[in-house]
C-alpha cells in the first residue's frame, strides 16, 4: 500500500491510497496544520503503536475507513469490506505538491 499526501491549495490537502489487491482510494483533508497534515499524524501514530485496526490498518485490509472513496468513481462507492482478505503492507509515504 502506498499513501500519498498532496497539497491541493492553501490550507487543503488530499490523501491518496494505492493498493495492489483493492481499488485505489482518496480522501480530502480532515484537519489542517501548517507543518504536518492531520492524516499523516494518524499514519505515524498507527504505525508506531501498532494500531492495525485504525484508519490505515482498515485501508490495508481492503476497507475504506468510512471516509475514503474510490479514486476512479464519481459517486465514491467502494466494494464492501471483506474482513477475511489478506492485508497489504504499507511500503512508504510520499508527500507531494501540485
Number of domains: 1
Classify the secondary structure makeup into a structural class: alpha+beta
Number of β-strand runs: 5
- In whole angstroms, the N-to-C terminal distance is 21 Å
- Give a quick account of the main beta sheet: strands, pairing sense, barrel closure: 5 strands, mixed
Strand order of the largest sheet: 4-3-2-1-5
Q: Any idea what the shape is?
A: globular
Low-confidence stretches: 75-87
Could you characterize the architecture of this molecule?
- With 98 residues, this protein is of the alpha+beta class.
- The protein has one domain (2-96).
- The protein contains two helices and five strands; from the N terminus they run βββααββ.
- The protein has a five-stranded mixed β-sheet, with no helix packed on it.
- β2 and β3 (25-28) form a beta hairpin.
- The protein is globular, with a radius of gyration of 13 Å.
